[in-house]
Amino acid sequence: MYTKSSLVILSVIGLIGCGGSDSPTETIIDPDPITPDPVIIPPVSTVPQLNELTISLKPLKSVNETDFATHYKNGLYLAAMKDDGIRYFTSGDTSTQETSASGGESFSETITQEVGVDEADRVKYDGDFLYIANNGGYIHALDTATNIATTTPYSANVRVLKKQDNDTLATVNTLNVGDEKNPTNIDGLYLSEGKLSVLSSSNSNAWSTEPGFSIWYPGPQIFNVSLFDTTTPVAANEIADLTIDGYVISSRRVDNNLIIISSYSTEIEGLIRFPQNDKEQQANYDLIQKADINTLLPQYTDADGVKHNLVTAENCFIPEDATDADGYDGIVTLTTINIDDPSEITSICINSAVQGIYATPGSVYTYGSVDQKSTVIHKFSMDGQSIDYKASTSFAGHVFGRGQSNLRFSEQGDYLRVVVTKNNDDADDQFEHQLKVFSENDTTNELELVAQLPNDDHPEKLGKDNEDIYAVRYFGNKGYIVTFLSRDPLYVLNLEDNTQPYIESSLEIIGYSSYLHPISENFILGIGQNIDPDRFTNPTIPQGDAVESTTGEIVEGAKIALFDVSGEPRLVKEFVFEGGYTAAEYNYHALTYLKVSDDKHLFAMPIESWDSTVDVATDSVIWNSNSALELFEVNISGANAELIHAGSVAPSYDTDNYYGSWNDRAVIHGDLIYYIHGADVYKSTWQLPQEIVGPF
């Protein structure tokens, strides 16, 4: 026989077995007619009280699988609750680029930030063979007989061209990349001895990871690393194809190790986005808690089609201040792949957020800014395939602005130098810029601040009121910063003693440089725009010949300038291309550089501008794009430094196909010039650039 009390207990047990309820309380009717009053039972919930989802600015710590799983799963649960973007980041010494070809002549290579650290680009050249990446896409056509539109996909590929005896180029191989049914974007190439590495991603997930875009949004997250044996380029064959979960944030190559930093956020089947009530929240929590932690981590598929975990919980890091009530839903992996033996893969993960990297031959720094108000930096040492966490720091401000953020960083010996910007609400001055110098503390795992500029001894500001930073570059014991609002101050920083930095000198000129390329300790090249300080309109005047600037009427457009920084900085010479722009302003890989000798340096950069004509019949304006490769020579012998415009490589293009110049590249090999525009290559020479052969 059941008593009244036992019936109530059974009812409670039944309630627990069924989970929670939509209503705030659950009512159970007591069947005993003697006391018919209902018994009110509180709802049953196993969801703990969790802290708000935020990005930690603290150092990292290694934890066991249980603690890692708690932090990660808490983050997945919190991320499903709301999607207000609060957890998302918003957003060295130069190489001489001199290499000897088989014929003894030097040729240009991809410009890099640090000597010994290669960077991915769409074009690579070894002196005999040219490799060009071409993205996949779709061909749209209309069948005139049936009037039916058709769409045909085509694969991404790397075209291999061989330099012939007469210096022309011939295609000798085409290396297909990705799935033809799902066109692929090639994100970059690496060329090392006998090996070509290709990073690619599906068009379906190839959105930007620049500031303002979420790199965590759930969806298709796959990228590929394809390795080709190019010992014999005409018969190059794929030796490995790795499919990896996530998005590539950035990559580098040091010796035979490919270093890839990628992000990943798992997709859990059945998870309810934006749960509306307690029942849905409880269902989400239960679903996440039941999941095996290994199924929530990124995986990779090897060449044999076998899946492996890219990381395990034991080699992942979480913020030092994380508690059982904290969580984060994103995974960032640092992976090294041995190019010579791609089965050798080493990877660690950070259960936090990363937006960019700066790399030296022995270190990788990951960084990101929260709402451009706070920044965190994590340092890892790299020794072959070994990755070890070293230290972290955080500070007010951000490292993002007009130029490429990695150029704000420089490691010299035991010091890390970083240029930081604070956005102020003060209407009188919107920006506050600082140079910060850090040194690693082995005991505390902190990058300790050892100096900054301005300081009490050197209070001069970096930039005038409301001037943002447009360019930063370091070279040896000097740092260079360009700020701009209506004119360009170029600041030269003295870093001979990293604990006592100061502004050595400055120069104010019209316009600005958005990329600085050190040539020597005495000369630096600036690439940017010439802007009339009295008006801030975008010029629409057609491109003209290179015009040497004068003190007369200001010509607006793309600018290249040579600065002497041996003492008080001075402008040696500059050229302006009316109404033009160059991709080298925002991507230094678009600039081509070859050091011929200590005194002679060659540069090439693409310039694009537009002109218009009026169609009288339709009374409409027709716009035409003009793209050309502009050539410059820098001679810095003695006191007679010169910047010379050596001519233009300006082929005639098919006007029905517009490629734009943002992906234009060039190679200088001795006197030869190879200009890559779109999928085509044109040959010319330094002495006679107007004589053009091609396209190939």
With helices defined by DSSP (H or I, 4 residues minimum), what is the helix count? Answer: 3
Structural class designation: mainly beta
Taking pLDDT < 50 over at least 5 consecutive residues as the criterion, the unreliable ranges are 1-36, 39-43, 84-103, 205-219, 536-551
Q: How large is the radius of gyration? A: 29 Å
Strand composition percent: over 45%
CA-based shape: globular
Strand order within the widest beta sheet: 3-20-22-21-17-16
Please give the alpha-carbon distance between the first and last residues: 94 Å
Mean pLDDT: 83
Oligomerization category of the chains in this entry: single chain
* Beta strands, count: 46
- What fraction, in percent, of the residue positions are helical? under 10%
Please describe the biggest sheet, giving its number of strands, its sense, and whether it closes into a barrel: 6 strands, mixed
